Write the structure tokens for this entry.
Amino acid sequence: MTVAVEILDQDGVNRALTRIAHEIIEKNKGVEDLVVIGIRTGGAYLGEQIQQRINMIESVTVPFGSIDITMYRDDLASRGHLAVGQTDIRFNLDGKRVVLVDDVLFTGRTIRAAMDAVMDLGRPQSIQLAILIDRGHRELPIRPDYVGRNLPTSRNEQIKVDFDEQNIPRAIYLLKG
């Protein structure tokens, strides 16, 4: 039997995303040459939320895109057929400060694949990483720049980010069992 324990409610998720947006602005000393790219699918939904908060805070429009990493995965052969999603980046990445966004950071392999995909599209000045939940268990030397919440887990536990019909995050659950 799987037990779901709520880690963050919708207000908690909203506070974490707003804090991340402020930290991104502060670390980058504004938003010049800044772009936000969400990793499909959950990261794209969260990236859009972060981009909207940055736009509100700074009264500008920071470019937003989403990236599909299916063909960059290192476990593609062992997973069988995976549907390839669409990458939607309509701006040049050369010289930009890219903020990659994902929902949960675990082994780091998804982020490695996303960085490879970004580098195939251009030569950014830097790549930063924003994560809603960092659950540990890294297999690669990848560390987030912005974290909504650190949540050490065991390998047999899972994290579920629950989105509503408009892809707005509602809550985050730790699944045990």
Summary: The mean pLDDT is 95. The chain has three helices and eight strands. The CA atoms of residues 11 and 170 lie 8 Å apart. The longest strand covers residues 97-105.
